[in-house]
Amino acid sequence: MPSLSESVRSVFIAALLLCILIIGIPPVAAAADGGVQFYVLPSTVTATTCVDQHCQVTTSSSDGGAATFNGLDSNTWHTVTVKAAGYQDYSQTFYLSSDTTQVIDVTLQPVPTPTPVPTGNLEITVSPKGGTACIDGTQCQNLPLDLSADGIFEFYSLAGNSYHTLTITQSGYQPYTDSIYVNAGMVNGESVTLVPQSAAASPVAQITAASAPSAGTPVPAATPANAAPQTTKAGLPAALSLGAIGICVAIFLARKN
Fold first, then answer.
1. Poorest-confidence range of 48-62, 176-190, 233-247?
2. Between the CA atoms of 90, 96, 99 and 101, what dihedral angle is there, to the nearest 10 degrees?
3. How far is CA 18 from the centre of its chain?
4. Span 34-107: which CATH code?
5. Average pLDDT over residues 54-82
6. Distances (CA, A) of 109 to 47, 84, 139, 186
7. Are 96 and 34 in contact, with CB atoms under 8 Å apart?
8. Of 2, 18, 200, 252, which has fewest CB within 10 angstroms of its CB?
9. CATH: 2.120.10.30, 3.40.50.20, 4.10.520.10, 2.60.40.10. Which one for 119-193?
10. In whole angstroms, what is the distance from residue 184 CA to residue 160 CA?
């Protein structure tokens, strides 16, 4: 039968193993004994070289354009970035072994030169003269409204072989909008005739309250121009009618007797 001390030791070992499984073995600190040297090409440029958070500025006169970093953590990964005016940014990760000084060449690539865009010019002749003309809503020109003005809008160095939006406004005329294709390497011409704005609408006749009949008032029918006037007969007096009846009765009785 195991003694009490052996039981306690077994429990302690089991608890230690359990803690190791749960927490894990702590990592061994990296030794800061690594070094690296970067040679930036072309060596004539002034470049800024950074390893992690440590940076150096190198020129052609500083150790042949080399950037040296010592005392770095070894047996781990690092990131180097190199920047220089006129060149694309460079970035790379590298593994640094212990007790060594690595040498890494960095060749920078120049920033691509943008291809020049061919351009063309545009002349717009407007009738009537004057107003404001705009290309693509950004380039605008104004012309005075007088007989001495030539009435031509001139736009230079527009992107060639492409469409542009032309808008023209002038007081008293409808706005004008069109899509114009500008050929590169030439003067493109366009003539525009503005359309006057619509005249004001004519006033509509209305019946005023003074001349309009009130509601419920009968309106006499129209009489034809050639219609004959109507005549009315006056009725016989009532006494004369009764007398005539009496005479007729008397004559009837006399004949009967």
1. 233-247
2. -20
3. 63
4. 2.60.40.4130
5. 85
6. 12, 10, 37, 37
7. yes
8. 200
9. 2.60.40.10
10. 4
Domain ranges of the chain: 34-107, 119-193
Q: Which long-range contacts (CB under 8 A, 24 or more apart) does 21-28 make?
A: none
Comparing CA positions, the residue from 43, 162, 46 lying closest to residue 106 is 43
User: What is the arithmetic mean of pLDDT over 52-73?
Assistant: 81
Q: What is the pLDDT of residues 81-126, one digit of tens each?
A: 999 999 999 999 999 988 888 999 999 999 999 888 999 999 999 9
